[in-house]
Fold this sequence. Notes:
Distance between the termini: 11 Å
Shape: globular
Largest sheet: 4 strands, antiparallel
Helix content: 10-25%
Structural class: alpha+beta
Radius of gyration: 15 Å
Number of helices: 2
Strand content: 35-45%
Amino acid sequence: MLRVMYEAAELNGTISDWQEDRGLLRVRVARHTTPHQFTESLNETLAHVLASAHWCQYWNGEVISVTSPSNPLRVNFQVSDFDPAPVVEIRERKGLVAVHVSPTANVDEFVHALNPALEELLAGGQWFQHWNGEIVTMDSPTAALT
């Protein structure tokens, strides 16, 4: 099973960090930051994740990774231009996951809204992780970290 979990945390000296294990990506976000601060940090963090980890999107029969020449895989967090706006809105297309965040959301609200949205995204079956020679999908046994 694939899981991506975001957590509000007390972080010192950083706004976001990450940890990966088989079938799991855990991202922590500093609790007392604004949407503009944490979206900027998450863009840097997820660029590092995609460059270092082995997550791929399966789009219309094509495997998309960070090294795909025509559509390199990326995740983009941005503060929504709308106010009011949903706390989180996710849009996915080939090579891109765009996460729009309400300009008034705090980190606890953000992770509370994002985690179920990511479960739904991953349940679509278009994602996999290449972990130590194994292809981990939503149908794989449970992730190592819980």
